[in-house]
Amino acid sequence: MIITEITRNIKREQVNKRCDLLFIEWYESTKRIQRLRTEEGMDIALKLLGKTSQLHNGDILYEDADKIVVIAIRSCDVICIEPLNFLEIAFISCEIGNKHLPLFIEGNELLIPFERTMQTWLDKQGIPYTLASRQLLSQLNANVDANYHRQLKFSTKGIPLIINA
């Protein structure tokens, strides 16, 4: 079965049908084209283009009279950091960005998929962290589409830039 769009998310409604779960890893949620198999053995080919290019926990991919196919993101080992102040957040985020690691947020915590190099760096810096197993659901994304930059360029036209040293 080829899926080209996500119909809706199960969180927003009550469904009285059998749920066939499609378990994926956190990094598979951003892949646009992939072949997967549900818990009950149904083969699914995803070809998500356009604005529906990311899968979220609870997304409904398929529905018929008696069952629905729902995305379930697996838990994985993560490094949990609870920053104490703004400067610490900036320092940690800069290092995570320099290593090109994904960063997730849950409540007051920064979550990073477990990487030994990041753990070693945190130990050297004396930054407290905990290791846990969690679902990575809310990835911070710094990518901005080209239209945003065009709008920003024209909306700030004529505004002088003042830098105080």
UniProtKB/TrEMBL annotation:
Its main location: cytoplasm. Pfam families: UreE_N. The keyword Disulfide bond does not apply. InterPro entries: UreE (IPR012406), UreE_N (IPR004029), UreE_N_sf (IPR036118). Signal peptide: none annotated. Residues 3-69 form the UreE urease accessory N-terminal domain. Involved in urease metallocenter assembly. Binds nickel. Probably functions as a nickel donor during metallocenter assembly. Belongs to the UreE family. This is Urease accessory protein UreE. It comes from Sphingobacterium anhuiense. The gene is ureE.
